[in-house]
Amino acid sequence: MNSGTDLMKKKSKSQTVEMKKKPSKTISDSEKCTVLREDCFRIMKEDGTVDSKVEPKIDKEVVLRMYHNMVLTRAFDERGMMLQRQGRIGFYVPSFGQEAIQTGTAAALLEKDWVFPSYREPGIFLYRGAGLYEMLCNLWGNRGDLSKGRQMPVHYSFPKIKMFSVSSPIATQLIQAVGAAMAAKISKTKEIAISYCGDGGTSENDFHTGLTFAGAYKAPTVFVVTNNQYAISVPLSKQTGAKRLVDKAVGYGMPGVSVDGNDALAVYTATKEAVDRARRGEGPSLIECVTFRMGPHSSSDDPTRYRDEKLYQAWTKRDPIVRLRNYLNSKKWWDEKKEKSLQEQIKAQIAEAVERAEKEPAPDPMDLFEDVYAELTPQLKKQKAELLHEVELRGKFENTSEAFPL
Amino acid sequence: MANLTLVQAVRDALMCEMTQDPRVVLMGEDVGVNGGVFRATEGLQKEFGEERVLDTPLNESGIIGMAMGMAVNGLRPVPEIQFMDFIYPAFDEIVSEVAKIRYRSGGGFTCPMVIRTPYGGGIRGGHYHSQSSEAYFIHTPGLKVVVPSNPYDAKGLLISSIRDEDPVMFLEPKRLYRSVKGEVPEESYTVEIGKASVVRPGKDVTVLCWGAMVPVCMKAAQLCEPRGADCEVIDLRSLVPLDEETIFESVKKTGRVVIVHEAPKTCGFGAELSALINEEAILYLEAPIVRVTGLDTPFPYTLEHIYMPDPERVALAVGKVKNF
After folding, report:
1. pTM for the whole thing?
2. Which among A74, A91, A98, A317 has most CB atoms closer than 10 A?
3. Cβ-defined contact of A374 to B102 (cutoff 8 Å)
4. DSSP string spanning A27-53?
5. In this structure, which topology does domain A32-358 adopt according to CATH?
6. C-alpha distances out from residue B152 to A289, A382, B106, B121, B199, Å
7. Widest CA span of chain A, in angstroms?
8. Shortest CA distance to A281 belongs to which of A213, A188, A175?
9. pLDDT at position A337, please?
10. From the CA of A69, how many Å to the nearest CA of chain B?
11. Chain A residues touching residue B65 (CB < 8 angstroms)
12. Gap between the Cα atoms of A40 and A130, Å rounded
């Protein structure tokens, strides 16, 4: 594959040129950034074929692992939604259609690198080795949950694989990633930090904050914006006056590139280049991955209330998993037999993990008081004793919580 | 022993900790070359380099968020917010992120850091350079809130805060930065977080205060003595965790309480202290608890000396409680 910063440089140069022109045909007003733009970096055509001149040299094992992870992510999301519909868990956030972005970026990282994800990135956790059982325990918020049932479903936290705890406030993690990257720079560990937000996230104060600091310090970090066209119900055209989110990179003094977010090879290639730049000490980059949110915002959301159905239908033909599978088939790295076996294997793995996770009991009430501080304060000790007394007195607590509305 | 001002003691603590622990890094607006607008970090960038004393872009959310990421990745950051009045852009990072990370990750991630910020009035600063907004942070589980009132405590408490495993809001009474001096050991030492200090023992009325209100209450105690009231002045020093034991012990002895703070009255920390005393020691009370606080108005400019509690106002309250 290409090494060096050619892609970014070329792209940012062409973007600068384009910015001076009238709106180019790639982003005509009728399209309003809601369909795939021609300015996006792409390696695979929609049928999975690749021009051999631009085909990156990625190890077969890496591509196969990416494919495996994308299929796993899709299956995990489907199961998560099903569990919610069956009333077995309270809430779920699927990432349908965004599997290539999660997997392509994750594959470009080293184990020692830090990831500060948003809440729609189960595929990064899976790629880096988070256990299905632990992730499922998070959906139940039970005793097997690493977060001890203190966060809503999909707010995973896996310190051992350097997957930072997911927060609900939007884009707060970007500046934290800059901090982790700066600590790495100061400690000379050669780690980089990558952080994620959506198109809506680019409107948040902390998007500006994160990119400002990263640019000022040349922090070894990469920002990935998953432009899936909607922030819950609000389309990109109402989110910002910017035609392309990648243009924001210019203002923060960093290179940026727009990528076809449904092209796993393009996402991987662009991320690898940005990660390598960061690791060489050449500073941050912004990657805009253009895609479409194929599912609801969450299990509580009904996208048919606001989604442009024609666009949605158009994007169903751009499934990132199908595209990569076609590529694998064309390379003779894959066939129907392998596909069937992978599907069965994943189904069985998830089923086994679901069965185990669902059996875990709820956290102990006394655990409510742990981890507020390293040690219980006198005030918490007192409240703990009071609750313990109440538990002994009344025994049961009825849970009358309503369904989550967002 | 050196005779230092409070701000010099702060700098001394930073110097000590940066020398003995390479993980300690400072960041904030103007903290580097300029040494901080109050000079709390004077000369430290020259001593430890630009990587350990970072001048930041003008963005409080960024200062705190970056410090949090650094702490998560093994450093011990001590970010400075130039005035507490400017901390609000960072409120989300402090309250949603810094304060909750240990809990929300089940103890998997922690961010030990000290957020230093000058607070309080009496420096002709108007409402954007004078507020005491400790209550917002006391109300947030996961944060410790520490307020020194003299140079010795400032150094010892700041060193304790930097060594603490949890995030600490370290509120520096800027009115006292240069107006008080005291003996401060040159070596490193700690003052335990969570322990109040009885700065003036007395038998008649318990006066609870912290930070810049401590010298005000001490002067009030002097005024009260000839008027027949012997005040026990308690400098809380640590608002979270709170040393309830010292408070209740004093209240049970005197049966009369005056609580003094600069912040507005409604939902100020005085309300919490009053509620606690009512819950734990109401049968010992000889008179209703009286609060002497800032007004429920924005902090004013010209009339700040009328807005803020002063020794006479505290003394009047003591008299009221004593003669109930």
Report:
1. 0.94
2. A98
3. yes
4. G-TTTTT-S--TTSB-SB-TTS-B-TT
5. Rossmann fold (3.40.50)
6. 55, 31, 36, 22, 13
7. 75
8. A188
9. 98
10. 24
11. 172, 174-176, 178-179, 206, 209-210
12. 31
